[in-house]
Amino acid sequence: MQIITVRHNDFLLQIPSCPLDILDGYYSFTFIEHGRYKLGLILESSISKKPSKELKKDPSYLCYELKMLKELVVGLYLLNEQKDKFSRLTGKYTTEFLNKLSKDIYGKKHKLSESCLALTEDELLNPFKFLKKVSKAVSMTEWFEFFEQCEQNSLAFDYEPYWEGIEKQTACTYFLPKLHDLGYLIVSSEMPAT
Fold first, then answer.
1. CA separation (Å) from 127 to 46, 91, 114?
2. For residue 16, is the peptide bond before it cis, meaning its omega torsion is within 30 degrees of 0?
3. Sign of CA dihedral 63, 53, 165, 120
4. pLDDT tens across 56-87, in order?
């Protein structure tokens, strides 16, 4: 175990703490479409009086998925802190690059570029500017509070969901799908295929 600091907050992580390894750990168990489905399920259940039957049937699934989402956010925040080491990502995700990457991953279906529509062209071309914007809007502590509130709301069946700090909840709900897509792009293009 290793303690790392992300924006003046301490977090306990297993070694390795390379951001790419953390992101790879998240995406090694899911593909982008299924990851989006799970993310939507969690977000929808956290604001609904009648959360998903899938989550109700297996609450440990929800806990595991939220743990993985925390790792995703930590990995991307770490990547932003180490942006000098990963400067090659700036300007990398052009339309041509996305089309080539899509062919490499999906063949003739070209799903990847369609799947990344949650990100604007500017966010794709300058991921560190986007990550800086996200980290200014939502601190790491606020992310962890958001995930805890998602868990509580999704497991409190037949109760009105409660959110403290609606502005942060809205920001997290808005940014999380974008972070999910960006992380997938980075892992797909940076990590060697196994």
1. 28, 8, 18
2. yes
3. positive
4. 778 888 888 999 999 999 999 999 999 999 99
**Residue that has been written with the tokens 């808005």 in this structure:** 174
Contact predicate 120/172, CB 8 Å: no
Q: Which of 110, 113, 35, 120 is nearest to 71 (CA)?
A: 35
- Tokens 């806990």 label which residue? 63
Which residue range is the domain that position 122 belongs to?
12-190
Calculate the CA 58 to chain-centre distance.
22
39 alpha carbon, distance to own chain's centre: 9
- 5 located within any domain: no
Q: Exposure string (b/e) for 176-186, b if CB count within 10 Å is 16 or more?
A: bbbbbbbbbbb
Burial status of residue 128 (CB atoms within 10 A of its CB: 0-12, 13-18, 19 or more):
middle
Judge whether 163 lies within some domain.
Answer: yes
Q: Can you tell me which residue has the tokens 């929808």?
A: 44
Six-digit token pair at 64?
């595991």
pTM of the model: 0.85
**What span, in angstroms and rounded, lies between the C-alpha atoms of 24 and 173?**
22
Q: Give the chain's domain count.
A: 1
Rounded Cα–Cα distance for residues 46 and 52 (Å): 9
Q: Which residue has the higher pLDDT, 104 or 141?
A: 141
